[in-house]
UniProtKB/TrEMBL annotation:
<protein>
    <recommendedName>
        <fullName>AB hydrolase-1 domain-containing protein</fullName>
    </recommendedName>
</protein>
<dbReference type="InterPro" id="IPR029058">
    <property type="entry name" value="AB_hydrolase_fold"/>
</dbReference>
<dbReference type="Pfam" id="PF12697">
    <property type="entry name" value="Abhydrolase_6"/>
</dbReference>
<dbReference type="InterPro" id="IPR000073">
    <property type="entry name" value="AB_hydrolase_1"/>
</dbReference>
<feature type="domain" description="AB hydrolase-1">
    <location>
        <begin position="42"/>
        <end position="280"/>
    </location>
</feature>
<dbReference type="InterPro" id="IPR050228">
    <property type="entry name" value="Carboxylesterase_BioH"/>
</dbReference>
């Protein structure tokens, strides 16, 4: 259920039916959902600690002219758990979903935050399987750069249990924390982020064992060597895309694709400015598919 002040476009989007599927990747059950019947394929990959429902109000807009899938990485959402997690495993899961969904080598991978690193690794490790990459506020740090004032990462803390659903929902926070004026979106995502434990408590859907310690590796070199289509979208107010990071990413992309800001958006750019994000992504994809 959405909040009463949710706009019509949002209610219509999250009410759009999607087909649920699972695929086994390296011994783990990976969950994904699909929208759209025709057009070029598109895979949406969420950030750390998130899940496929983050895309519920985005995917239907893209499914008007694409076949769209949104997945849950292992350890998150409805997917299975592993003893250990790695970026290589996540990348293999993304490719596994593409194969199970019948997506060919023209698939575009769209990843937010950690999902951008996952998509980059997938495109770098299996270039014959990927036609395009869009990284959404997924920064690549210049050598030696540290983000100033980095807050304590809640993914590194043991998950808390709450006595009831409403108590858990009241504690839902974005990671990293930021302002977001669209309370109806936060409410919707929060309601899909909570699960009941076997002993009757309520907690978050993500596995709290090791997800915050994923090593992204040599992203700069991966991006330099990439030969598929590239697009970078970031929040104009994102703390993860200060001027130093923007300049560095521009250098890495080197005119092979757009590096574009979403105005009035922070790190969680498609929560802050969902329609602007859809418009930017639609324009980018239309240009690519017209080539």
């Amino acid at each position: 259920m959405t909040q009463p002040d949710a706009p019509d476009w949002f209610c219509e989007a999250v009410g759009t039916p999607a087909d649920a599927h699972w695929v086994q990747v390296a011994g783990c059950s990976i969950h994904y959902r699909r929208w759209g019947e025709s057009g070029p394929p598109l895979l949406l990959v969420h950030g750390g600690g998130a899940h496929n429902h983050w895309w519920d109000f985005i995917a239907p807009w893209l499914a008007t002219d694409h076949r769209v899938a949104a997945m849950d990485l292992s350890g998150m959402g409805e997917s299975g758990r592993r003893e250990q997690y790695s970026l290589d495993d996540f990348a293999a899961e993304a490719i596994g979903v593409c194969e199970a969904a019948g997506f060919g080598p023209d698939v575009t991978l769209v990843g937010h935050s950690l999902g951008g690193a996952v998509c980059l690794r997938a495109a770098a490790s299996q270039p014959e399987r990927v036609g395009g990459l869009v990284m959404a506020d997924s920064p690549i740090r210049p050598p030696g750069y540290q983000f100033p004032g980095t807050a304590r990462n809640p993914l590194r803390q043991p998950r808390r249990d709450y006595p009831d659903f409403d108590s858990a929902l009241a504690r839902f926070r974005l990671i990293p924390e930021q302002p977001c004026d669209n309370a109806y979106i936060l409410d919707y995502i929060g309601r899909h982020s909570i699960i009941e434990t076997p002993d009757g408590f309520w907690t978050w859907k993500f596995d709290d064992r090791g997800l915050a310690h994923i090593k992204v590796g040599e992203q700069a070199e991966e991006l330099r060597q990439l030969r598929c289509r590239i697009g970078i979208l970031y929040g104009e107010k994102s703390a993860l895309f200060p001027p130093e990071v923007r300049q560095y990413v521009h250098q890495l992309v080197d005119r092979r694709g757009p590096v574009s800001a979403i105005p009035e958006a922070y790190h969680h750019l498609f929560l802050d400015q969902p329609l602007a994000f859809v418009a930017a992504l639609r324009i980018l994809l239309a240009d690519w598919h017209a080539l």
